[in-house]
Amino acid sequence: MEDLPFETIRLAAADVQALENTYNALRAKFHVGLHYDVKLNLNDFDLFNNDTTLNLAGVLSVPNPANNCYLAFIRSHIYYDPHGRHAGEIIDNYRYKIWGFINSKKDYGRVLIRRETFADRIVGLIHPVELEFKDDKPFDKKYYVVTNDANKALLAITWNFRNAIMDIKDENMVIEVTGKTLVMGNNCWLDYEQAIALTETLVNLASIC
Fold it and tell me: Residue 52 has what pLDDT?
């Protein structure tokens, strides 16, 4: 097994293998490189605020002529004691997730984009908060979009941007934007096939936003 640019202490063997497979696949297909000048603050995004154990364990840059885009390897601490302290099997290890980041030239304000659910539609009838795209009914029906600045978001979320999102096959993909930084992922544990699909979407969006 080759040396990896990520911490592997207290990772299960299957997770170490997933990390190696992902890293090798990304280097082969996208020619990613290590990025040391990290300027990504997880606390800026609501997507990461529910897990206080998360830390940014490594960043890969993805070549793109339009906008800088990166893959962030985020490590989560898993601790579980099913029978109380000093009893039963205690799980105490780490696992990885991968998220894509784009530094855009546009300012989106704060935006959340995900697949719309039936519950979203019910809530929308009582307390409408969703941003509407009246000129794009297919997108408007499929995706749930909320923002703190409707005018800014409508200018930034262009027709081409919406079409690129419509092409995403992963139903669990979530996109959050804070200012000019876009983050996207599906919050699943690291898997190289999902990492490849995420990076393909990341590169496509980076060429548009």
Answer: 85
Write the DSSP string, 104-135.
-SS---EEEEEE--HHHHHHHHHS--PPP-TT
pTM, entire model: 0.88
10-24, 39-53, 150-164, range with the lowest pLDDT? 39-53
CB 19 within 8 A of CB 94: no
Residue 23, Cβ neighbours under 10 Å: how many?
A: 22
Identify which of 36, 9, 5, 35 has the alpha carbon closest to the alpha carbon of residue 22: 5
CA distances to 3, 163, 179, 190, 205 from 130, in Å: 46, 19, 19, 31, 22
| Assigned token pair, 178 | 């804070």
Helix runs in 1-107, H state only: 13-30
Please report which helix (H) or strand (E) contains residue 152, including its range: helix 150-156
What tens digit of pLDDT does each residue of 55-98 get?
A: 999 999 999 888 889 999 999 988 766 665 555 566 778 999 99
| Intra-chain end-to-end CA distance of the chain, in Å | 38
- Report pLDDT for 47: 93
CA atoms within 13 A on the CB side of 92: 6
Name the one residue in this structure whose structure tokens are 């795209």. 133
